[in-house]
Every structure is written in structure tokens, then in C-alpha cells.
Amino acid sequence: MGDAHMAEFGAAAPYLRKSDKERLEAQTRTLDLRSDCFVSDEKEEFVKGKIVSRDGGRVTVETENGKTVTVKESDVHQQNPPKFDKIEDMAMLTFLHEPAVLYNLKERYAAWMIYTYSGLFCVTVNPYKWLPVYNAEVVAAYRGKKRSEAPPHIFSISDNAYQNMLTTSTFLGLTPEHSGSPSPLCASRSQSIWVEPHS
Predict the structure, then answer these.
(1) Where are the annotated coiled coils located (predicted)?
(2) Is the pTM of this model over 0.90?
């Protein structure tokens, strides 16, 4: 779903999915799978780095913040190719490990993309501010779409559960777990997709 299709999401589009331009730029950035990595950091948990030397199971890494550290090779985690930056479903990452998950969530959060799938789950990072992703236009854009046909959002999860209930008479429960904000708020947002008139 490119920029043209994202127009139906209105003002919410940049809060839900990378633009075509950003996707193209990510595909042209280079990555050296042998040296580009993540290493642990006291301040930021994990940082990007580049392996500059290897010696007997230990590697020396120059980090993106200018430090040089020597760690066990087993403590180094490979970076994913740039095309996976801000990926919508982290289950699709080539290298799925804690630093890659944290980096992806951090990058999406920095762009105010607060919803991210992780396999079957929808992860939400509380923005602590109002974003234009809960209006009637967004509800309408998600209605009737399969999860794979739209960016991650609680409305997608809600509508898919609702459609499944209508077609199979089976209830799939929603479990709103929304760190930092009341669960009823998340539940009310997810139920708003059912309350809006279906066309």
C-alpha cells in the first residue's frame, strides 16, 4: 500500500506507515552484514556500531556515539538491512533479537508510529499526546480490510475480530494492555470501529 492508497487514511497516514520516498531511501542505503552490529550500552541499552577487528572470540566495535568497545563476539547482534527500518511487523525481521526489536520500536515511536505488529500481537507505545489516528476517517479506512491490507492499528485488530464474529459465530477476545494509560481507553477506541455505521 503506497502513498496513493494511504490517502484514504487522511491526516493519519504519516502516523501509520512510511512514505514511498522513505521506503525507497531505505532500500538504497548500504549495510555490511559482517561488520554492522548492535552492542550493549550503559546509557541506551543497545547502540549501533561497526566491528573494526576480531581477535580470539572478542571483537572491537566503534559505536555510533564515538566509543570504542571490546566485547565477546557472542554479545554482538547483527543489524537488519535498512529496508527493515520501521517495519510494521517485527516477525518479518531477518535478525529477530532484543536490540532489533527495541531499535524498530524506537524508530517507529520517533516518527509517532505508535502501533507495530509482532507476529499475532499489536504492540502499542503510548505517545503521551493526542495523535490524529482515531477519527471517523481512520475507522472507515480500516473497516473490512484484512490485517495484511492496512498498517498496524487497534482498529484493524478490532475490525478483524468483529468480522470473524459475524462470519464464524466465534468470539475472539480483545485484551487491551496499554502501558501507561487506562485499559478502558484502549477498549473504547477498539470498540469505536463497531459503533460507527457500517456501509
Answers:
(1) none
(2) no
